[in-house]
Description:
The protein has one domain: Heme-binding Protein A, Chain: A, CATH 3.30.1500. The strands form three sheets. A six-stranded antiparallel sheet has the order 3-4-7-8-1-11. Strands 2-5-6 form a three-stranded antiparallel sheet. The chain has a two-stranded antiparallel sheet with strand order 9-10. The chain is 25% helix and 26% strand. By secondary structure, it is an alpha+beta fold. It is globular. The chain is built from five helices and eleven strands. Helix 3 (148-158) crosses helix 4.
Amino acid sequence: MSITVTVDSAFFTDVGDHNNDGVVSLSDYFSYLSSNMGFSPWDLFDSFNGNTGWLLGPKNGTQFGLESNTGSGAAFVASAATGGELHYTLFDNPTHTFYGDLNTIEVGSGLNDSGSVWSTSQSWITFDNLSSVLGNGTVNGQPQPDNELHNIIYSLMQGDGEALQDFLVAQGYDLDAALSVGVQSADAALVGVQEYVDDLALAA
């Protein structure tokens, strides 16, 4: 199995060719993110849907959502796989670490967090089926600092998105390739290699 990347038509009007290279691509989203995303550590206290418990205790929920505090409206929602959860250790060891069953990241404008199921107000790009290739950030059930899932979420919060870019490239996506509305195709050769490796691992 492999991840899917789906682009909404609103991305072309809201972000477009942000880096002015003549092509609307995934790179334009990361260019936009770097100049429009910001957050305060205080934002983390109410950024999980359905989170309950002690204010200064670990956070968890099926979704984690954040809207930039710069006023740009840049936002994203990370969602767990069905039956799973996302977790943030806060002050537990290892401190300030995300882990869990990340399956989907939706990026866009505005955060719709009024109900039990969160979304962006206007979706631009959805990265789905991440759990098919992404680990849950634990070893023997214990969260690990700087795990790949943590790095992906935290890099979006910081506005560089570098870890998500590296992840997409590893899955065969050319970040500078022209986008179209709908599901985008990864490099078939690279995806084929990964699927072959996965098949060998399963047969071992």
